[in-house]
Structure formats: structure tokens, C-alpha cells
# Entry
Amino acid sequence: MPKVVGVKLNEKGKNYFFRSENFSFQKGDYVIVETDKGLQYGMVTIDTHEVAEEDLGFPLKEVVRSVTKKDQKQYETNVKDASVALLKAREVVEELKLNMHIIDASYTFDRNQLLFNFLADSRVDFRELARKLAQIYRTRIELRQIGVRDKAKEIGGIGPCGRFLCCSTFLTDFNSVSINMAKNQMLALNPTKINGVCGRLLCCLNYEDEIYTEMKEGMPAIGQAYKKNEVEGKVVSLNLLKRTVTVETKNKTLIEVEV
# Structure
């Protein structure tokens, strides 16, 4: 069976898998890997392990080698140069009066590409910006527009729960979140309560939505007429954990009953 290893190409990025036939790595090792954008520097997050060929799904790129002292120095130079390029790119944006804000910059390990992530309220014609940056840095320039959730992931912060943002600590993918999830969990539809620091719906609304859906099975809906034994009225609230409903009778009395 082929051997693979999980690698992160940046601290807050997702795990990518690479073939590791000739090497054995452990979590925390640093490696140079081959990607579609060229050679990249990354950190091993999942030890080398065997995977059935049919479970791979698609061909994987190879781990090129372990990081050497020379590689480490090159990586540090790339990081330093990218931070300088970020400041220069922001200057050019000001000169061209473009309605965009560049968040970060990064070189591929082999410096074949310089990538900039930016925020913008609408589509931006950045062809002139890319041309000027290519003239300055003599390499391929890629400008990628990102969303506000990506910005929160890059910057980090504290969520309403008092903990560090999920997106900047462990989330690697942004799953779809809908207002129906907040309704399903019977939360007050107050933007200050259900929106994160990015201004979008809280990612954590995803976490318990499936459980709420399961627990609601067999439970009456709020506002539904209720009649069981000697209790008759209208359902005004649910307690999913206790599996009880509160019924308002015709004489305005509230009675809690088990479902």
C-alpha cells in the first residue's frame, strides 16, 4: 500500500496529503513538497502511514525531502521578503487608487510565485497592479480575493464564547451556515448574538444543529395545538433535553408535560 503523510503549508491552513514512499515522517517534522504552484515548505501534521490505493481518490504529489539548514534559511528569507512585498503592494494600490485592501503576501518556496490575498467589496480590475508588481519582483504574481471569514482566520481574535476563534485555531474549511440553523436551535435572531466577529453567522451553529434536529423528532412545534390526557391547549415552549413541552391552557395556565 502507498505511504502518505499529512502536511500543512501554513500555520492556519488545511491538511494536504502527499506520497512519502521514500521517507518516514512524524508530526512536527518540516518538509519540502511538490505542489501545483511549485515547491512549498510545510510542517508534518499527520505521521507517515499506509493508505489503500482505492482510498486515495486522486494522484498525490510527492514529498521532495526533509528540510535542510539551507532550506530553513531560504524559507526565513522568503517570509522576510514577502512582508516587504506586502508593504510595497499596498503602496501601489494607493497609487492606482484601487478599492481593495491587501491582507498578506507569501512566496512559494522556490520563489516562482508571489501570492497576495486581498479584500474588496466588489470585483476589482487589478491587471495594472499585477503588471507593476511583476516588473518589480520578476516573478509570477497571483492576486486572490478572499472573504471576511478568511480575514478573521488570518487575523484571529476572541469569539463571544470567550475562546479564540474556531476559524483561526482548528477549522480548516468553512461549511455553509444558514439562518435556519439558528431557528432550529431556537436562538433569538439577534445579529449581535448569532453573528461572529466577521459579521457572518457563527460557524459554531453547525456543531449542534444535527443533534437538535434529531431531538426534535416526535416533539410538537411551538404554536401547535396540544391535547393529551386532561391537558389541552397550545404549545408555547420546548425543553429538548428533558423531552417536555410547556402548554398554555384556555384559562392561561402554563403546564409542563412530558412528551
